[in-house]
Amino acid sequence: MANCQPTLCLSLSLLLLLLCSKPVNSQQPQANISLGSSLAAGASQDYWLSPSGDFAFGFQQVTGGGRGNSFLLAIWFNRIPQRTVVWSANRNELVPDGSTIKLTEDGNLILADPSGRPVWNPNSVGSGVSYGALLDTGNFVLADRNATVLWESFDQPTDTILPMQTLARGTELIAKYSRTNYSNGRFKLDFQTDGNLEFETTHYPQMRSNYPYYESATVTADNLSYNQSGSLFIASTNGTILGNVFDNRESRNDFYQRVTIDHDGVVRQYVHPKRNNMSRWPMEWTVSDSQPPNICTGIKGFIGNGACGFNSYCQMESGMFPRCNCPQGYVFMDPTDHSSGCVRNFAPQDCVVKDGNDDDGDQFDFVEMVNTDFPNGDYQFLNSVSEDMCREACLSDCLCDAVLFRVDGQCYKKRMPMSNGNVDPANGGKTLFKVRRQDSTSITNKKDHSHLNTNVGWFLLGGSIFVNLIFLLASCPWRKNPPNSIDGETLDRGALSSNLRRFTYREMETTTGGFKQVLGSGSSGVVYKGVIGDHSSKKLVAVKVLEKMHEMEGHDVREFTTEVTIIGETNHKNLARLVGFCDEGQHRLLVYEFMSNGSLADLLFRREVRPNWYTRTQIAYSIARGLAYLHEECITQIIHCDIKPQNILLDDSMTAKISDFGISKLMKANQTRTTTAIRGTKGYLAPEWFRNVPVTAKVDVHSFGILLLELVCCRKNFMMEVEKEEEMVLVDWAYDCYCQRKLHKLVEEDKEAMEDMKRVERFVKVGIWCIQEDPSLRPGMKKVVHMLEGAVLVSKPPDPSSFISSI
Fold first, then answer.
1. Is 304 a domain residue?
2. Helix ranges, 530-685 (H)
3. Between 20 and 30 A from 349 (CA), which of 79, 306, 602, 783?
4. Which residues line the annotated binding site for ATP?
């Protein structure tokens, strides 16, 4: 920079008048760094401070990743524990212990390794440097004796912009590779020479731009400025603001602020309190805004590996942070870097002709991923086909690695590598990944279940009609008809052969170790701990031994046969799964997937420490997706009728699964409502149950709304207030807090939720919409999912009415 701004020159001049030009203690606040001053990388950890002590310039040690004791020459926030790096000189070439940074006598700033080899120096600096200074803005400058700035770190940013910093056209910010790896990553912020601001993927490891996933369309802009008020905006030459990127509302006097393009490609604005007495703010960095809102769906280009690497899929979590996942049967290319992409954990389909067979397609099956798409990987499109035809088309094609099937009959065949994978309800349909059958052990989650939650037994003893009658349908030994028929009618084998395994009683004895370890007991039977599979693929299960079987009339059996056949064909990660059964002689046993974390009721209401906010938000998403699947994605719509925390089970990874379909109601293809007796549990029932009118899937929406508010507040819908000696209704309190703009009262003892009040407000508004007295006002569950995820704007909900409190 040839000439400094007048205010900057004045500030430097005053500093020069107040302080002498001799070297000062390296860890004391200082105004300038004299010629000849130096710092060394090592245990001493000397650094140069800004006058206020807010920023430091020196060496930061970087460990891990096989780097040993390596050092980064950097500027960081010095008064907070995280010491967050905002600028670095040698991000792509770390230096070892004993390296030095020196402002030489002739005015050159040189970073050298222990042998004296120069590693970095700002080559734009000319002669005439009299001193260096780290300013309270976080800007490191080299200036002449007239306080004219000859070089500044603000002109060579890495991945962060600070308040009072302005970027000229042609300036780039490059994200670091990972949280702990500061080298150039796969994304960059590019303020282009024509004035357009773009966030772009790169041709990693080259930094050449790939394609933009965000752009401002401000081609007449002159600069990108982060002003003292905390707003990041694009302005023209005359100062006219052409567009705001972020508009922060927190005072710079009270908060440290920064805007960073993070390793995941999201540009986030962060704030951090300067003082410990700001009780409503955590003493850590908090995201105040981000762009794009959803990086998983924001990246759509046909070149590059997307947000999470090839063959991986991206899912938004905790509001603004994505998570990268591998499909079942695939593993991360680099286990320490989940953005590295995924590779098969099994041998691919063989295309070589052997013994007259074209391929080994019969050795493969599919893993289903609902609402998941890999848009870049299609090589053939089939139209007006059934799902079975779509599957067969892939099985018979050795080049096919997956297919995307949509309910309208569209089938897209895909092959590796696939990019930009993401989970989004707007995707629709499902991706089916082809995996090798005999390698199923390699795609099973082999976690150590050393400590079991014995409470799981109690949730398997609800006396569900659904599970008890499966055995009647399986063999019906008390009837004269053949095993697979009732009154001479052939059963649909889907529920009994596709998903369920038939065990012998001897296998059950072996599985449970002689029925030794009891997990729980109830009126309908006892539940035992069991293990199925061989040594290489053991899987914990809960085995329920039924003691009573209830007879049914033939008409009821036929009706339930149809229902259980369809329910048996459901397949969703948020529905509890029945693994198999035994119906040998007089023995009736059910085998369930093991739920090591019990029920949601236990998690919310029976523990002294409330579950963290992130866990609760993921549970809310999971339940909503499970219900959306039952209501809108099954061939036959299923109304659960009894959504409540006791019927939501949690597996070892805290994934929520809807359970107990014993009182569920199925709808015919042309049916939208049904008349039936009251089903469900007090406190979660929709008003229409009490009005003798036909019910719809909206009764589940109402129950979900109650449950959602319980998840937000960690309180039961009905709860006795000891001090007032009266019953408090959660939905009334939540609505009052919303109307009075006092939503913080709902989560005031929850630090994580207090940091995420935008999501808290969104969840509460969704909950209120769901519990509207008029069913037509309640959104469908697919829309609820979109509202929860922020994909759909949630408008102000009306008063849900006082009718709820009387139920």
1. no
2. 554-568, 600-605, 613-628
3. 306
4. 544
The contacts found for 249-254 with CB under 8 angstroms, 24 or more apart, are 249/288, 250/288, 252/163, 252/228, 254/278
C-alpha span between 514 and 245 (Å, rounded): 65
Q: How far is CA 568 from CA 154, 646, 668, in A?
A: 62, 22, 16
Q: Which of 31-40, 175-184, 225-234, 472-481 has the lowest mean pLDDT?
A: 472-481
Whole-number Å distance between alpha carbons of 18 and 236: 37
8 A C-beta contact, residue 749 and residue 719? no
For residues 283 and 136, membership in a common domain is answered with no
Residue 167: per-residue pLDDT: 92
Looking at per-residue pLDDT, the higher value among 770 and 361 belongs to 770
Of the candidates 416, 346, 349, 341, the residue with the CA atom closest to the CA atom of residue 378: 416
Whether residue 151 is found in the same domain as residue 171: no
CATH number at residue 513: 3.30.200.20
- pLDDT for res 128: 86
Same domain? 619 vs 657: yes
The distance in angstroms from the start CA to the end CA of the chain is 72
Count: domains in the chain: 5
Relative to beta strand 330-334, strand 55-62 is unpaired
**671 and 728 assigned to the same domain:** yes
Q: Record the tokens describing residue 702, joined without a space.
A: 């109402």
Please indicate, yes or no, if residue 332 is contained in any of the structural domains.
yes
Q: What is the pLDDT of residues 494-513, one digit of tens each?
A: 334 445 677 899 999 999 98
**Hey, how many other C-beta atoms are within 10 angstroms of the C-beta on 321?**
15
Residue 658 sits in the same domain as residue 793: yes
To the query of whether residue 774 is one of the catalytic residues in this protein, the response is no
Q: What is the pLDDT of residues 241-265, one digit of tens each?
A: 888 888 766 667 788 999 999 999 9
578-582 and 501-502 beta bridge pairing? parallel
Return d(Cα 657, Cα 649) in angstroms, integer: 5
> Helix-strand-coil percent breakdown of the chain, rounded to 5?
25, 30, 45
Backbone angles phi, psi at 495, to 5 degrees: -70, -25
Q: Can you give the residue range of the structural domain that contains 567?
A: 454-593
Write the CATH number for 202.
Answer: 2.90.10.10
Identity at 357, one-letter amino acid code: N
Catalytic pick among 262, 264, 359, 642 = 642
Q: Please give the full DSSP string across 705-774, using - where no structure is assigned.
A: HHHHHHHHHTS-SEEEETTTTEEEEHHHHHHHHHHTT-GGGGGTT-HHHHTTHHHHHHHHHHHHHHT-SS
Q: 86 is written with which tokens?
A: 């905002």
* Amino acid (one-letter) located at 745: K
- When pLDDT is averaged across residues 342-356 and rounded to a whole number, the result is 75
- Domain stops at, among 95, 122, 156: 156
Examine the domain organization and report whether 179 and 70 are in the same domain: no
Gap between the Cα atoms of 563 and 568, Å rounded: 8
State the average pLDDT over residues 662-675: 48
Q: What's the pTM value of the predicted model, to 2 decimals? A: 0.53
CA 655 vs CA 126, 258, 355, 713: distances in Å: 60, 34, 45, 19
Q: How confident is the model at residue 724 (pLDDT cuts 50, 70, 90)?
A: very low
Q: Retrieve residue 487's tokens.
A: 């009154």
